[in-house]
Amino acid sequence: MSQTVDRALSILPLLAEGPADLGQVADRLGVHKSTALRLLRTLHEHGLVYRQADQRYRLGARLFALAQEAVENLDVREIAHPHLVELNEQCGHTVHLAVHEENEVLYIDKVESRYPVRMYSRIGKPVAITVAAVAKLLLADLPEAERRALASTLDYPRYTARSTPDAAAFLAELAKVREQGWATDLGGHEESINCVAAPVRGADGRVVAAMSVSAPNVVVSAEELLTLLPLVRRTADAISREYSGSTPTKEA
Q1: Which of 14, 43, 123, 209 is the least crowded, having the fewest Cβ atoms under 10 Å away?
Q2: Residue 46's closest CA among 31, 61, 26?
Q3: At what angle do helices 33-45 and 2-16 cross, to 10 degrees?
Q4: What sign has the CA pseudo-torsion 72, 138, 204, 79?
Q5: Nearest to 108 by CA among 98, 116, 120
Q6: Please, what sign has the CA dihedral across residues 115, 121, 76, 142?
Q7: How far is CA 236 from CA 97, 177, 231, 232, in A?
Q8: Do residues 243 and 204 lie in contact, with contact meaning Cβ atoms separated by under 8 Å?
Q9: For residues 212 and 196, what is the distance between their CA atoms, to the nearest angstrom?
Q10: Residue 252, pLDDT score
Q11: Smallest Cα–Cα separation from 60: which of 16, 22, 98?
């Protein structure tokens, strides 16, 4: 039974390359045409493949519907939360998860620092979009035209001397973040608070959320916080793999 399931599932990536006839499917699977036909008929009955008028098979509409339904039902917060808790246990600092919705970047999860000094951020609260590290990651992933259009509509409050001053500087920062794949806010919103962030990506590689570690200067310096970047990125990658359903690469 497991071999039959394996063969049937092997047909799907083949048809993802384009329509194929019965002989091509049988050759790729290394089975007799009668076996390939049984597998194709079963997949056809479930709407996962479709037989065209030219007798070639392609992926069926039901497969796309299932994929879309699966994506819509994914809860990135639910998937990410155990990873955020684990990261908090390892570093002790405040951990956030944020998403981009309707021209705002919102915190959707938070794990509090173990230290007495706490951040006032809270779940559901918009971030300071022009300076926050999570916002930079989410907005950097937008197509260039969208980034430029958004940058031209934003206000640029001078929270501190390190705040992003204008649209040109903001676009330059987003380009840098897009290239390096991570972001920081080193006193841009509050002089005493530093933050380092990494992206959570979906199966298509697009950024679906951003997670960060933040800490005040009285607890840890900016330089010390930046040493946590590899750990933050590994955590974001682990969330991305689970969210997208991909298998982690085995180390040699």
Answers
A1: 123
A2: 61
A3: 80
A4: negative
A5: 98
A6: negative
A7: 10, 15, 9, 6
A8: no
A9: 6
A10: 35
A11: 16
